[in-house]
Design goal:
Elements lengths: L2 E2 L11 E2 L14 H23 L5 H34 L4 H33 L3 H36 L2 H11 L5 H12 L4 H11 L3 H20 L4
Antiparallel strand pairs: 1-2
């Protein structure tokens, strides 16, 4: 069952706490979607780490599924980081203390360190989709482990320090404006890929809150229409994990 943080201000939202999450700083902004995405990133990297160790190199059909799932994961992570780099950190830099600005610069630098790790993993998945290459599998184990550890450190850093800065310096209205300006509008096809992926494994109580507060009910409808198909594909993808 998800935890909700206690609040120190009567008008602040109760922050979502999901499995694996390190912190949920209090403040005026409801960061529920941020934490749902962080949960999905951690979940997938844990699964990829087990899958690349245990999937036989000759299982090319499974490697193709793993490669497709990696593309979805990397696409979502890239978009997540792009919104932060283009919208969130610049909005904070002019308001923060020198120590806070240093934290924001560290966030951006960590994004730059993660990107080549992701591409190296993508190359490994493509190789194993085409060839039963045991050396490529062994190399991919190392690359995925490095990507997992790097991203886990980054997410913990963001949850403990960067989000605390966001909560101190921005209002909910400013946060919403940044999201509206920098987050791309999803097509129906994109939403059908991303919604079941982001929702998978989120405790039901938390998921109901996210759907309820997202407004419009569209995400809930998409989830209901796509969740079973996604779960079947997920099971095939990580059958050796």
């Amino acid at each position: 069952m998800p935890e909700m943080s206690t609040t120190t201000h009567p008008t602040w939202p109760r922050q979502l706490r999901l499995p694996g999450q390190v912190a949920a700083p209090d403040g005026p902004i409801d960061m529920r979607m941020m934490y749902v995405m962080h949960h999905a990133f951690r979940r997938d990297l844990d699964l990829f780490s087990a899958a690349v160790r245990n999937t036989p190199a000759a299982e090319r059909a499974t490697w193709a599924l793993l490669g497709e799932r990696w593309e979805l994961f990397a696409e979502a992570l890239h978009e997540h980081h792009t919104i932060e780099d283009a919208g969130v950190w610049p909005a904070l830099e002019s308001r923060g203390t020198p120590e806070e600005v240093a934290t924001l610069h560290a966030m951006e630098a960590e994004h730059g360190e993660i990107d080549p790790l992701l591409e190296g993993c993508a190359t490994g998945f493509r190789r194993l989709t085409q060839h039963a290459d045991e050396d490529a599998r062994a190399a991919l184990v190392v690359r995925v482990c490095a990507a997992r550890e790097s991203l886990r450190r980054h997410l913990a850093h963001e949850e403990t320090e960067a989000i605390a800065i966001i909560q101190r310096l921005l209002t909910q209205e400013e946060w919403t404006s940044i999201e509206e300006e920098h987050a791309p509008d999803l097509t129906l096809a994109q939403a059908a890929r991303l919604v079941p992926w982001a929702a998978y494994g989120v405790p039901r109580e938390a998921l109901e809150r996210v759907f309820r507060e997202a407004g419009g009910g569209g995400f809930r409808v998409i989830w209901r229409l796509t969740r079973r198909r996604f779960a079947r594909r997920h099971a095939r993808t990580f059958r050796f994990a």
